[in-house]
Structures
1.
Amino acid sequence: MKIRLLTISGVVITALLLDGCYKHPPASVSKEVSANYITEERDINSITVRRELVDRLKVGTPLFVDLADKILVPSRVQVDEERTAQIGSYVTGRIVDMFVKLGDYVKPGTRLARITSPELTQSQLAFLRASSRVVVTQKSYDRAKYLLAADVIALAEVERRQSELEIAQAEMSAATDQLRLYGMDDAEIKELARKGKILPWLDVKATREGFVISRNVIVGQVVQPSDPLFQVTDLSSVWVTGDVPEQIVRDVKLNQQVEINVPAIGEAHLRGRIIFVSDTVNRLTRTVMTRVLVDNQDRKLKPDMLANMHITDPQHKSLVVPEAAVVRELNQDYVFTVTGERRFQRIPVELGPEVANFRPVLSGLAIDQHIVMEGAFHLDSERKLAELE
């Protein structure tokens, strides 16, 4: 408590002079004037507390620890594109039958749908013509070689027939490739060549093992080669993709282990590995797309589930105080330092974001200062009550 003695002395001297001039001065004059001029300057950040409250406080010094922050990135579960296939028709045609439904497990070669197509019919007809011509030109060339040996025909005739055979074989190869492009396998092509009977339909088949997670076609629908009819994916692993702010992307590395939390499946924390960090920044959101590979053998994670990606910073030494040591008022953080027996002083500090119940100290506090580690909230409440008195 600070008292302005100079003001009080002036008041007392004035009162004595008045006493000499007047025989009957009012007895209360001196007390009233003194009360009006006496002021106190109380330090609102200082507090002396009761002994019983001191016993409830824990005093210590700031800690210097290895700190590793966790970056929380909102994310989404996606299919592993390396284990996914979009399957469609190779020809324009009409779907006449369906063999699978959503959720079915398929293997490579499993029939998914059956399609009829005029393009397929024309390609099979071109293949049969080329096949027949190869047979004819092969026989003609063989006969020419026999006649040349008997000196019946000239060499030029043999060469001409050889050229016709080579052209027929090239046409045969092109027709075979066209059928393969339309989805016919070697067994079906051999059967076509053996029987010479055009197949009226073609089966759309799975190209990889997995579950049918998308089916965009029904019987009777006319489809184009550009239409995605089925999506088959292996869900034994999935991607979790999130956008990391560019300010902290320097702490994100390939093959870094991260923690994944998916609220839809409970509080369980899954482990994943960063497999991709984009080389570009989204100009609108100022973020960098990051992809994590997560094991999903039990198929609990489903595409488009919301998730949280926790990326752990590399450890670094930092001066910290417990969260319980901090009080906040008007957007300013404070801690209480010990100034004497049962006396404490509230001082402003600059702290970083909370990490594992600790606040990194940026400025305002030294490692050797004694502070209230626990119970700062109760101490601040006592300080506010004293301020009101």
2.
Amino acid sequence: MVTASLVKELREKTGAGMLDCKKALEKNDGNIEKAADWLREKGISKAAKKADRIAAEGTAAIMENDEKAVIIEVNSETDFVAKNEEFKSLIKTLLEKIINSDAKNLEEVLKLETDEGNVENLMISKTAKIGEKLSFRRVEVVTKEADENFGSYIHMGGRIAVLTVLKGANSEVAKEVAMHAAAMRPTHVSINDVPVELVEKEREVLKAEAMNEGKPEDIALKMVEGRINKFYKEICLEEQPFVKDGDITVKDYVKSNDGEIKTMIRFEVGEGIEKRNENFADEVMSQINK
């Protein structure tokens, strides 16, 4: 019988999760040593020891067919691993599995079956094999209608990936928009997509700035409206000056090609993840001196 105390003991011994420990004990008739070996063979205990490490490097990638496109971000601890063939093969496997499935979000993707178990277990085994913490951070699955076009662009070998969907126009125009988004970092497609609370927060900050400059409140409010328009140009794809022709906006460029922007998804590897600020030489020396 597998007791809670046995699970606790195995967890402390291996660092693996409670459910994995329980399963290991059940598979090995409650024998702690055999269960620990089982976890090692599966790569679970080795991966668990890396769980608290920061994975902020990695790759953003895209795959598309005539009807569907998939964009993912998978993280590693170092850029070196992101460039090796084992990691690249993992990315290809993930993209192919997702695009050929009905999965629509990360939770569903992690349950997809591969030759090495489901995707969640695949990530664990690859973490053990490659020797660095790997993390499947995010995925978006997009479909399109017959009169719509995908545009995709990968920058710096996977540091940035952008996927766009345009109604009308063509795939070349859609790719131009994706390239623009890679460079200019919009967070929303149009003004209507910006959350009201975000705009109101920006108004408050801009008003305070104007008041601190010594402007009367009525003048400050007028200044806020002008600065809000600038704010929209910074974060809204449609409002930004087009990188290849600053005299027109991205919206104007697409419209001149009989198109309309429907979707824009931009993944930049590691964005929003607090990265370690460590000296690599010091880290190596710390390992040597242990």
3.
Amino acid sequence: MTELVDLSALQAQAQRLVDAARKAGADAADAVAIRSVNEVVSVRLGATEKVEHSENDNFGLRVFVGQCNATISATFGADVDELAARAVAMARTAPPDAYAGLADPDRLVHAFADLDLLDTRIPETAALVERAVATEDAARAVAGVTNSGGASAYWSRAGVALVTSHGFSGRYETSGHGHSVSVIAGEGTGMERDWEASGKIHLDDLKAPDVVGRIAGERAVKRLNPRKIDTQTATIVYDPRVSTGILGALTGAINGGAIARKTSFLKDKLGQRVMAAGIRITDDPKRRRGPGSRPFDGEGVAAEPMDLVTDGVLNTWILDSASARELGLATNGRAARGLGAPGASATNVLLHPGDMTPEDLIRSVGTGLYVTDFIGHGSNLVTGDYSRGAAGFWIENGELAYPVAEITVAGNLADMFMRIVPANDIEYRGSFTAPTLAIEGLTIAGR
């Protein structure tokens, strides 16, 4: 079989771009070359609906002329010299940016850790169909499930090469495998929908299709006959499927770009307590088989694991070189890059578990709301205001009593962070991982 991703060719393409930029008059340049291959099948009611296969080869070039810069992107086969000259001409007309530039040379990494990010197996299309059908069949077999929204299975491969004009050259390859299903329970106006998915870098790490399907079916059935509840203030318990949203709010609020622009409600909180005592949150770009793992960041900088929050105290911002310079700090290797300019981004974020089981945590709440699903996005990271449509289960006497829907949960993130109580259940589903969480004192808007 022809090699899916030729990393040497990607690296050579990135080097040609940088060389062409320097020849065209750039003072400095960096280039990224990316090849991605994806295949996904979709089935519904046991029949294959769609098979999609895509292959893309793209590159991005960033050039600097003095303090001015420009980026340009194209597909492989484009005239490298012409594009480099165009990028340099664009940079000469761009406004100066005192903070943009390549990473400091002494921060570049030249020995790359093996993070086990590639599973070389390529499933046949028939195997993907079989996996999707098995996932859907397991979900439809759950008593009470009446219809299917469909199931899918996929695999992917991607290779990345980054080259800079000041001495960095690196490359790596990643893979992905997964399957998911959405099903419907009930009839007529009483129908409820739910889903489950499993996605991993290595095929062997996936949850079995029958497990994924059964979970989706059982979740849909449990949501039948939801009730409305009165508007009130109560403790909210977040299912792990939605508790990662708290991490998204935190990492967005401590992103170096937001801090530099002063558009974060945490902009003055570095070194201060921002979460409940005992809360620890880490970001680890070197987690083996982690979906956010990478041997170098989008600027070629070495990235090490770090505590974002320790014992509730905010330790750091998430920084790339540009935001770090603007804040008078040093990058911590969190630059992420597609085809455009880099930007600061977290990698594998973990809110570390507490001591109680989820059952004990719910029992300790007594009366409250267990949220399994949120609708839309409702976090204002400038003010910290938080408001989201939700569905889940009402808690009575420390037990899940009945499903509820058509409610809104509201509060302020600054207050919510200070009242987080984590359970001890951890399942690595994606790049953000959090256990079951309880947060008291939120407003529930109901009937």
4.
Amino acid sequence: MRNDVLNLSTHCLQQWREELAGAPGALHRRVLSGIARDLERAVKFVLPEGGRLMDDDRSVARVFHDLRLPFPVVALEYRSTGVVAAHETPSSKRISLIWDARQAEPALLEGTAASRGVLPGAPGLYVQSISYMDDYEAWMPVMATAYVDLAREPVIPEPGDVSELELELVRHRLRPGFERSPAFPVQFIAHDDFFLDHLGGEAAADAIFRADSGDELSAALAFAALTTCANVAMETVRAPAPLNRKREASGKTPFFDTRILQVADGGYVRRGTADAGGAGSHASPRAHLRRGHIRSLGERNVWVNAAAVNAWKATPAQPGYQLQAVRDENDEAGDLPRPRG
């Protein structure tokens, strides 16, 4: 199999199947079986390490009301770092399970979401974080599902809006500017009130849910934003049929087909405009790097690759960059831009 296929959903479902075949408590059985039903039917995607398809929350905020999934339920698989705050254990593998509320509702929340103010079919995304806990060698979902309300507006939080408890919990993966990144309208629907009491009350539980779901929420929103782009395509990697026949014969969970996002035609590049050195109102006098971002063009969104802007304007006091593709023996893709002084 290709080495970029992780098969995390298969391994997670296999472990849960074995657990459910035992004698778990009623609550544990309800939570695992409910999430497992949707994880099995979800369309699987592999993401880069850390789950960050792009590190640009402001791009997501600009297209926030356009967000939607290409399928009713998707599962994003990726390797990661960090700690599961609720269990104080490292987590090296993650799954972000996402439902487009206009097309599907989590099986676990059927008849429950509406009681928390979530209208059936309203524009929104449900996100369930599932982490592999290294110390326990076990897959475990966060005991709440996040709901992102796409009908509301993202806001830039004011200083002090992020609680000290939440900052402390996410310190291990805090990125610069976290406090001033757009805050997306998210609420958490606990799988049972038992978890609120177990985690120290509603406020403490909410902070833990946010900390342990933060990476998966970021991955979900970036994925939903990128798949609105007209120039983003999908490559499907088929699961090996002979291997699956053997797994099925031995009663094991089969491997799933996996998809990988690709930028069609190398990404959109603006030409003959101020970005290319023109003198329009958006012309940039200084040489600088512009990171990849989403741009709206009429009624469609496109992904714009990272680029050097006005690189020819470099001076000894104001250095510029030339970016070119360099193939490195350790870089299989060979298309990563490398700075040249």
